[in-house]
Design goal:
CATH topology: Growth Hormone, Chain: A
Number of helices: 15
Number of strands: 0
CATH architecture: Up-down Bundle
Number of domains: 1
Largest sheet: none
Structural class: mainly alpha
Radius of gyration: 21 Å
């Protein structure tokens, strides 16, 4: 990591080669992931009959689990690769791989072949698995100490802008091209090609451990990485905190497809709106962290984020638990004509905003307190935990829905579990709560000074 310098706006990084090509590369990759997944999931949810052997109700959870599985299997290996090889070169390798994967996906959309699309989903998960450690290890290698929070905020914002645009684009492509789904494959191929062009401009990022022998056994290396991460209790609990956020995020995002169709009785345009509100909220929360923290790593924001997530998950359950049953799917104007639905949208936006506030300090914590010699492997261990938690999320959701629970009840259970996880996190690392108290007092004093 480079040394400190006078603080400037985080957006100034977007004018610098050390950040902009990397930013565009990861933005385009995340965008392609989401266009592909949302289009595929929307097609099998609303046009199930076109795909043989697919259950439209649980397809979203299955697609999510397939995408996440490579993170469980290969994150440990990808962490070693990111420590052994130049990260910029690795990004270019991964982008070439993405173009090949999208050729498989294009064939899947052409033939409405669920097996081919499941395979492409798995391979896109592998692409993201390889890219993740290089991405998060790249930032502290090229950013100054007082730029790390802002840089992470921009990356988080870009990720969820990609989710937003991918959600709208993928949903609209699935709706407009339901009879000619090959267009979706063309769009994904173009995005992969643009990502490859952006990666070509990423500046060199020398490997910190070029002589590292790679252990190609994913199981023993996974155990080794988790043991390595566990050497620092605060970093490890930060990783658990991030993984829990991905558990919640996967639960909500995958549920929106069935929530829109079976609870709100709404069409695909409303589904797009739900996913849009969630994405906008997380992006706004990630950017807000820079202002709330004063450009520093502020762990006191983590309890604030956890409190907000719990409060609005509870209200989302309350606002959606007793909606009337309709015999038709509402259009977007019909949906927005109901005041109760505005409350649901506000709950989603605020829940995700606090999730963005919660996440950025935890990522910065892991990056700043990990040893540079094995930082990518620590991030790989974090990806493994994230993946395990997301797979558990899919298993829990499918199990609860199979047992007869509905989507609003799933949200209520998620809120209760969030309280339990927050208690574990903050009792294990008292620094989170002590920093929260200090941050709150400082904000109050600053406000009083402004008023005076």
């Amino acid at each position: 990591m480079q040394g400190d310098s006078p603080r400037q706006s985080q957006f100034a990084l977007l004018r610098q080669r050390r950040f902009l090509p990397f930013f565009c590369t990861q933005l385009l990759g995340a965008l392609n992931d989401n266009v592909f997944k949302i289009a595929f999931t929307s097609l099998v949810t609303y046009h199930t009959s076109r795909f043989e052997g697919v259950d439209g109700t649980t397809a979203a959870f299955l697609i999510s689990a397939i995408f996440i599985l490579p993170f469980v299997l290969f994150s440990a290996t990808s962490g070693q690769i990111a420590d052994k090889y130049d990260r910029a070169q690795l990004m270019r390798w991964v982008k070439r791989m993405e173009v090949a994967i999208m050729l498989v996906g294009a064939l899947g959309f052409w033939y409405y072949s669920a097996p081919l699309l499941y395979l492409a989903t798995f391979l896109m998960g592998l692409h993201s698995t390889l890219f993740g450690p290089a991405k998060y290890a790249y930032l502290p290698q090229h950013l100054k100490a007082n730029e790390l929070v802002g840089g992470n905020g921009l990356v988080q914002m870009a990720t969820f802008v990609a989710i937003l645009i991918g959600t709208i684009g993928g949903g609209e492509l699935a709706r407009q091209a339901a009879d000619e789904a090959w267009w979706i494959g063309v769009v994904c191929l173009v995005l992969a090609g643009l990502g490859l062009l952006a990666a070509a401009r990423v500046p060199p990022s020398p490997a910190p451990a070029p002589d590292l022998p790679v252990n190609w056994n994913p199981f023993t290396e996974t155990a080794r990485n988790l043991k390595l991460a566990g050497q620092d209790r605060t970093v490890f609990m930060g990783m658990l905190g991030i993984s829990w956020l991905w558990f919640l995020g996967a639960t909500f995002l995958a549920s929106f497809f069935a929530f829109s169709r079976d609870v709100l009785f709404a069409d695909q345009s409303v589904l797009t709106l739900l996913l849009t509100m969630f994405s906008l909220g997380i992006g706004a929360g990630a950017l807000l962290c820079e202002r709330l923290s004063g450009g520093r790593l502020e762990l006191g924001l983590v309890p604030l984020g956890a409190l907000g997530m719990t409060a609005f998950a509870v209200d989302l359950y309350l606002s959606s638990a007793a909606l009337p049953i309709l015999g038709y799917l509402q259009t977007l104007p019909q949906f927005l004509a109901q005041p109760t639905h505005w409350r649901i949208l506000l709950d989603l936006w605020l829940l995700s905003l606090f999730a963005g506030i919660y996440s950025v300090p935890l990522y910065a914590l892991i990056q700043s307190r990990s040893d540079p010699a094995y930082r990518a492997r620590i991030i790989a261990a974090n990806n493994i935990l994230n993946a395990l938690f997301m797979v558990l999320s899919a298993i829990m959701a499918m199990g609860l829905l199979a047992a007869g629970l509905n989507i609003p009840q799933l949200y209520g259970i998620a809120a209760v579990l969030n309280i339990l996880m927050a208690a574990i996190l903050f009792l294990s690392v008292p620094e989170f709560m002590s920093r929260f108290v200090r941050w709150s007092r400082l904000r109050r004093v600053n406000q009083e000074n402004v008023n005076d």
